[in-house]
Amino acid sequence: MPRQKNPKSWNDANSNLTPENPRRASVAPSSSENLNPSKPNPSCHAEPEEPTGQHRVSKPPLDRPKPGLYIVATPIGNARDITLRALELLKACDVIACEDTRVTRKLLSLHDISAKLIPYHEHNAEKVRPEIIKRVKNGETVALVSDAGTPIISDPGLNLVQAFADENLLVTSLPGPSATLTALVLSGLPSDRFLFAGFLPTKGGRRRSALKEVATTPATLIFLESAKRLAASLADMVTILGPRPAAVTRELTKMFEEVRRGPLDTLADTYAAEGPPKGEITIVIGPPNAEEKMTVENVDDMLREALEKLSVRDATAEVTEATGWPKRSVYARALVLKKEAQ
Fold first, then answer.
1. For 41-69, what is each residue's pLDDT tens digit?
2. pLDDT digit string (tens) for 95-131?
3. Distance CA 164, CA 122 (A)
4. Could you tell me the fold of the domain covering 180-285?
5. 166 Cβ partners below 8 Å, 6+ apart?
6. Which CATH architecture has domain 63-177?
7. Is 70 exposed, middle or buried (0-12, 13-18, 19+ CB in 10 A)?
8. Where exactly are the structural domains of the chain?
9. pLDDT tens for residues 147-185?
10. Spatial separation of the C-alpha atoms in residues 119 and 122, rounded to whole Å
């Protein structure tokens, strides 16, 4: 089988798999070739053992995928972070439903794939969903992709999967890249239990309320955030969660990938001073310290009682001494509660 050229990456400099680095370059195995000869590959036809001395015979092509919806994860930055199975399916399917046809077409062109694309996003989902179901009922194979990462995780598609389940139609997933899991494993924070909370509300009051809802969750917290709201969100996180260990990640899998680790208050000060960074942001925050005796609710109750007789400054000092919480966090909560009481 002729060797194939490696497709260009969205970030060739990051991949280091270029002709200038031949020692690190490699050719992807044939999609029909078993990567582990000791184990059968269920995606391939069985082949009898070749007699000694005979030339190897090419294996037959893969069967056509069954009609259904195939949820396909795509790269979050580097175009090579896509599975062989995903490439096979994207080549073989009848149509690809995607958020933005321009983004998906760019990925497909890098891998020499031609396919029919239809837009599927939050603005047209109600109209397009019945059309996709009709296609599958007529025997077609439909792939669902997002602009980056695993579809349905903070992306359109949930209602589509539910509709397929209601119709008892085939729906399956081809797992792959995820910014959520990539950020978690790079954060250095506990990964045995975590909560993905998506994007926080854009308004400060609602954002703090959302943070308060998860403040006592005994798990690592993961949020997505835009660069322009990063500093404000980190400040609110300090107010509600205190100086927990955290990590701010951006540009994951790309040339300028960055992971900053430290206490939340330190990270908040850093980004407040530097201004909005570039790239997609994922924030990972450690769980509450098992030794913490005071929850957010406890602190708020103590502050409300103190504010009935003391100034904000004196109430902050009293509650800080009683709880051991950072003075900055207590003061911020005192200001919020004072304003709510007015």
1. 444 444 444 444 444 433 334 578 999 99
2. 999 999 999 999 999 999 999 999 999 999 999 999 9
3. 17
4. 3.30.950
5. none
6. 3-Layer(aba) Sandwich (3.40)
7. buried
8. 63-177, 180-285, 296-341
9. 999 999 877 799 999 999 999 999 999 999 999 999 999
10. 10
